[in-house]
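Notes from hallway chat w/ T.B., transcribed later so I don't forget. T.B. wanted the structure written out for a chain they're using in a teaching module, and asked if we could keep both sequence and structure tokens in one place. Agreed to drop them here.
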Amino acid sequence: MQHPRPPSDPSDPLDPAGASGSPSPPESSGATASPGWPEKAEPGRELDDETLALARELFEIVRAGETQRVTQLLEMGLAPNLRDSKGDSLLMLAAYHGHTSLVEALLRHGADPELRNERGQTPLAGAAFKGYIDVIRVLLENGAEVDARMPGGKTGLMFAAMFDRVDVLDLMLAHGADPTLVDDQGVTATQAAQVMGAEAAVRRLREAREQG
């Protein structure tokens, strides 16, 4: 069993194809769309420099959490499920960077909480990996699937367990997360926590299984 590295480790691109199955951080380059255009560039169609510059600016203000500016664009008709060249939606970027108010605004305007990027990752997985409990709560209250599987079979509960985030565990368990699920290697959330030395998470998950 290989140990997942923490998200701050620059040697780990958080590649879901790797041992940890952890979400890859949304990247800042390669934008393919912007307000008023399709969600992604059409095959064989190249965007001009001005369009690309506008697209990059849009994704940067989402990463920065500029809720007011993004909300204004949404009210002007910005597609809420716009994605960059990596398939990261506006909601994925806002969730991964912990911008709760922006996540709420995107969801109010129709953003899909289950829209995956090209790596098969959801906004909930990104928020769970980073430990943004308020973002997680908003996503769950707006229809995000609590036990959605990522590449490698891991769930948000497993990410929270690995990094000893008991508050996140409590929230996800309250929304029906199943602590008995296993990933593609047959590892449960409790076992993942044990590997990482996340003792508080191990205790909480054992309690949940005993109660459940």
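Follow-up for T.B.: The two ends are 27 Å apart (CA to CA). Might be a good example for the class.
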